[in-house]
Amino acid sequence: MAGQAAQTVTATVASELALRIDALLPQTQCTRCGYPACLAYAEAIASGDADINQCPPGGAQGIRELAAALGRDEKPLNPANGVEKPAEIAVIDEEACIGCTKCIQVCPVDAIVGANKLMHTVLGEECNGCELCVPACPVDCIAMIVDAARPGAPHNARASHYRRRYEARNARLARERDEREAMIAARKAEVRDTTRNAVLDAIARARAKRARPNP
Ligand code: SF4
Ligand code: SF4
Q1: Ligand 2 centroid vs 188 CA: distance in angstroms?
Q2: What are 28-78's pLDDT values in tens digits?
Q3: Which atom of ligand 1 is nearest to the CA of 142?
Q4: CATH of 88-146, one of 3.30.460.80, 3.30.70.20, 3.90.78.10, 3.30.1840.10
Q5: Residue 87 pairs with which residues in a beta bridge?
Q6: Which residue is closest in CA terms to ligand 2's atom 4?
Q7: Of 3, 53, 107, 161, which residue is the least packed, with the fewest Cβ within 10 Å?
Q8: Ligand nearest the Cα atom of residue 165
Q9: Residues with a CB atom less than 6 Å from ligand 1
Q10: What residue segments make up the domains of the chain, in order of their start?
Q11: Which of 102, 152, 144 is nearest to 124 (CA)?
Q12: Portion of the chain with pLDDT greater than 70, in percent
């Protein structure tokens, strides 16, 4: 029982710690740290499963801040996770775009607009430079360019904005999934009711036939 209580306390502390660590990450959700999102990486650092030098967008400044917050030594960025670069944004070669929507599906901050079979465009203001759309494009028409609008900006200058957009996207995806599931359930119920009514009609017809006096 005491062990269970200690475990609960540890989980609570780890979760609070993870949130503090997450607040220092740039929120690009780029997965280069080896985790599916910034918060997942923060949780891994908090639990001791990941090191503090795995975030290329955070770079040296991010590592410095993590080291200071956690009372650890600074260390260079792990090259296995990538290299530190100036802030970039994605641009789409609109002539080459075939409108397949694959880039929209992977963009963590809904920074790409377009519709099926129509040309797509990156909203430069919203792109966080995560690069996830680049390998997703089947015709290789997305390139990363230096973001001229944010020269020398701190690594996490827009972190709160990106987090809000990421959470809004997750909420949208969850809402769409719920709507799809509700629609499928409604269709199934409709088919079930139609089948049931057809069976009841058939039974009623058979009974009526049996009840008719023989000529
Ligand atoms: S447009 Fe591409 S690089 Fe920019 S945030 Fe979206 S997926 Fe990442
Ligand atoms: S993945 Fe490439 S081809 Fe497909 S919509 Fe995006 S930019 Fe266009």
Answers
A1: 35
A2: 999 999 999 999 999 999 999 999 999 999 999 999 999 999 999 999 999
A3: 2
A4: 3.30.70.20
A5: none
A6: 100
A7: 3
A8: 1
A9: 90, 106-107, 109, 111-112, 122, 127-133
A10: 2-81, 88-146, 174-215
A11: 144
A12: 93
Instruction: Give the span between the Cα atoms of 59 and 50, in whole angstroms.
Output: 16
The CATH code that applies to domain 2-81 is 1.10.15.40
Cβ–Cβ contacts within 10 Å for residue 169, how many?
16
Hey, what amino acid is at 146?
V
Dist. CA 192 → ligand 1 center (Å): 44
* Ligand nearest to the Cα of 99, by number: 2
Q: Whose CA is nearest to atom 7 of ligand 1?
A: 107
**pLDDT per position as a tens digit, 182-210:** 999 999 999 999 999 999 999 999 898 88
